[in-house]
Structure formats: structure tokens, C-alpha cells
Amino acid sequence: MSRDVRASVGDADVAGAFAHLLADARSTLEGWQAPDGHQERLRLSYLEHLQAHPDAVAKAGPPAHLTASCLVLSPGADEVLLTHHRRARSWFQFGGHLEVGDGSLHAAATREAREESGIGSVRPAPPVVQLDRHPLQGDFGRCREHLDVRFAAVVERDAVPQTSRESLEVAWWPADRLPESTRTELGALLAAARRALSL
Q1: Mean pLDDT of the 190-196 span
Q2: Distance between CA atoms of residues 153 and 142, nearest Å
Q3: Which of 37, 72, 159, 183 is the most exposed place for a label (fewest CB within 10 A)?
Q4: Is the dihedral of CA 26, 92, 152, 118 positive or negative?
Q5: Phi and psi torsions of 128, nearest 5°
Q6: Is the distance from CB of 109 to CB of 117 less than 8 angstroms?
Q7: How high is the pLDDT of residue 167?
Q8: Strand 94-97 relative to strand 145-154, pairing
Q9: Domain region containing 178
Q10: Nearest of 163, 138, 140 to residue 67 by alpha carbon
């Protein structure tokens, strides 16, 4: 039976509660100038997914849903602050699911970065720096795929991070020696952040 046939009052409730984030996601993606063909195809696929699934901005929506994240950089972009994710068991930028109280994708990325880094002064720059759609590996329950909208922030190197309960560790990594398991993904994100922020 298709998801459309199985649509329930619960789906409508979720879509209604997250309607402001759906509107912001559409506006953000419609107004974003993708830097290359691959990112443009992702942008269009995100918009198509949101059209088909108005509740896709919520974790309680379809198994494939939008998330927001933030790569935290040192002022010279020669180091990045990463979290060793407890469920994924790998090093990543900070980020996660959108919440009803978030006013926008940018606000969600800001909240996630502050919660997971323990640095209350983290403030991502406004532009989206990258889109990344990826299947999940690890203990993520019903979540199967994330359509991530990525931002970047610069914080002073003397900022003291704190490990949240979602992480095994939070640490600064040299930009030229990123964790081996996620080096390809993080390297592409770092390059995109440097371009977007002119670092």
C-alpha cells in the first residue's frame, strides 16, 4: 500500500506543526544558487521531495527527511571542530533533525551546532554552503535517509567545546588531516564552506 493511501491524521498533524519550516525550506532552496550541476540536481530533488511529502521537514515524517547541519571552522579555516557521533560512530559536522520550535533551517543549524559543540556563540553564516543526500548507517530507528542542508560558522580557536550526550567526543581537527572514515565527505564540505565564506 502506498504512503499516499496510508496518509493519516497523524501525517496531517505533523505537516501542520512544521508548516513554517516547510515554507522556509522551499524559500531557501528556491532562492539558492547552486555552485555546480550536481548541487543543482540535489536542489531540485529536495524541492520535489518536499512537494511530494509536506511532512518531510520532520523526523516523524517519511523515512527520508530534511536535516540541517553546520561545519564549524577556525578563523583561518585551517581547523574544523567535529563531533564523534555516538550512533554513527564516525566524525561529522554538527547537525540533526528540525524541531517545531526552530524558526528556519538556519535556526535549526544554529541550535544543533550550539547544542552539540557546547559553544553558545556559534552563529552560522546565512548562505547554504552545500546539500548532501545520504542513506544512514547505524542505529537510527525508522530514519533511512537524510536530505541535509549545510551551513558553516567561524569561531575563535580558544572557544572551549563540550561533549553532549549525542557525541562520544568533540575535537578540533587539522583541515589537512581530517578523519579517514569521513575525509571525502568532510573535505568536500570544507571546500564548499571556504568558497561560500571566502576563506
Answers
A1: 97
A2: 30
A3: 37
A4: positive
A5: -65, 135
A6: no
A7: 86
A8: unpaired
A9: 64-197
A10: 140
State the DSSP H helix or E strand holding residue 128, giving kind and residue range, or none if neither: none
Q: How many CA atoms lie within 13 A of 65 on its CB side?
A: 24
Q: Are 6 and 61 in contact (CB under 8 A)?
A: no
> How many Å apart are CA 102 and CA 92, to the nearest integer?
22
Domain assignment present for residue 59? The answer is: no
Domain annotation covers residue 1: no
Q: What is the pLDDT of residues 37-94, one digit of tens each?
A: 999 999 999 999 999 999 999 999 899 999 999 999 999 999 999 999 887 789 999 9
How far apart, in whole angstroms, are the C-alpha atoms of residue 152 and residue 95? Answer: 11
Number of domains the chain is built from: 1
In this structure, which amino acid lies at residue 155?
V
Chain mean position to CA 135 = 13
Whether residue 35 lies inside any domain: the answer is: no
SS3 content of the chain, % helix, strand, coil (to 5): 35, 25, 40
Q: What is the pTM of this model?
A: 0.90
pLDDT given at position 65: 93
* Three-state secondary structure call for residue 82: strand
Q: Which residues does residue 148 pair with via DSSP β-bridges, in sequence order?
A: 67, 132
First to last CA, the chain: 50
Is residue 64 exposed (0-12), middle (13-18) or buried (19+ Cβ within 10 Å)?
Answer: middle
